[in-house]
Amino acid sequence: MRYKVSLKKTGEGFAIWVPGLPGCWSQGKTESEALDNISDAIKSYLETVDDLTKDKESRYVEVANA
User: Fold this and answer.
1) Cα(first)–Cα(last) distance of the chain, in Å?
2) CA-CA 20 to 30 A from 9: which of 1, 34, 56, 60?
């Protein structure tokens, strides 16, 4: 799965977040570290969403890349 992320250089390194997943963000001293960290953050975010919605009625839709 691929997610678009936004990256910003800061005084401490890099801030990184996923615009499509509100509240999903991380940071790193280097761009590479920030990218690795956001990958872990996305996995945790999606696991939490699954836990919070496991007893809810859900549907899935397929979205094609434009």
Assistant:
1) 16
2) 1
